[in-house]
Write a structure and sequence with these properties.
- The protein is built from nine helices and eleven strands.
- Strands 1-2-3-8 form a four-stranded parallel β-sheet, with helices on both faces. The protein has a three-stranded mixed β-sheet with strand order 9-6-11.
- The mean pLDDT is 93.
């Protein structure tokens, strides 16, 4: 069983709707994980988030960094909910002998994304913003923050492959690569880019040639969030789609979604 359902969004959505982000995610996780156990589901995969780690965690961030420091304030409610989901899986493993595993994805993007102008994650938001700027021949596009934070991005098909790979691992193999009574593995691409570099890459994918302006009065969020995915890579998984290729595919999805809607 795969538990990927969640209320998600970018920095603006997390900042604007903290109550919904903690409540909705806690309720989804609690109900589904408990129901899975009640119905005798022995094996489950829970999708967490890189937001679970401390704001100033040592880079790249290993699984051992969980609960070792203060969370990023802009997404703390979401992070607390996801940590609760991890601990719920670990608790059912400990008490009932279940095989409930958790993967911590880095920032994901690709087909099927949410392209809402305010509440989406950074890549779909930028795809829409640059596309509309291109159509309107806008001279510039404004982006929150300084552009200096570093972020890692993983194409959604690579994440899906990682989930299947983790679920196909033998229980003993999985336990060897995680700490005793700990159920999580990081899933990341392996390198990061600044938000400014990302913005330029999205602009290239869309074909926008105007000016990019950064609004330093808006929050940046965590300075850097690069995942250490060496444990999962040691088990035979690796990403296949780089950022430029993934952005081209994501933009094509945006165009088809826009046409359908």
């Amino acid at each position: 069983m795969y538990l990927a359902a969640a209320k998600v969004g970018g920095i603006h959505a997390n900042h604007t709707y903290p109550a919904e982000f903690i409540y909705d995610n806690l309720m989804v996780q609690a109900n589904v994980i408990h129901a899975a156990h009640s119905q005798g589901i022995q094996k489950l995969l829970f999708l967490g988030s890189s937001c679970i780690y401390p704001r100033l965690a040592q880079q790249p961030i290993s699984e051992d960094a969980l609960l070792t420091g203060t969370l990023e304030s802009t997404n703390e409610p979401y992070a607390v909910a996801k940590i609760a989901g991890i601990k719920m899986c670990e608790s059912f493993n400990r008490q009932y002998g279940r095989d409930y595993r958790s993967v911590m994805p880095t920032n994901l993007y690709g087909p099927g994304d949410n392209y809402h102008p305010q509440n989406s994650h950074v890549i779909p938001a930028l795809l829409r913003r640059f596309h509309e700027a291109k159509l309107n021949a806008a001279a510039s596009v404004g982006i929150w923050g300084t552009g200096t934070p570093l972020r890692e991005f993983l194409y959604v098909d690579d994440m899906a492959a990682a989930c299947v790979h983790v679920m196909n691992l033998a229980a003993e193999t999985y336990r060897i690569c995680t700490k005793p009574m700990q159920s999580l593995l990081n899933v990341g691409f392996g390198c990061d880019v600044t938000i400014a570099e990302l913005a330029r890459a999205v602009a290239r994918a869309v074909g926008y040639h105007g000016h990019i302006e950064f609004d330093a009065s808006k929050p940046d969020g965590t300075p850097r969030k690069l995942m250490d995915s060496s444990r999962l890579r040691s088990l035979g998984w690796a990403p296949r789609i780089d950022l430029d290729q993934g952005l081209d595919l994501a933009y094509q999805d945006f165009l088809s979604t826009r046409i359908r809607n």
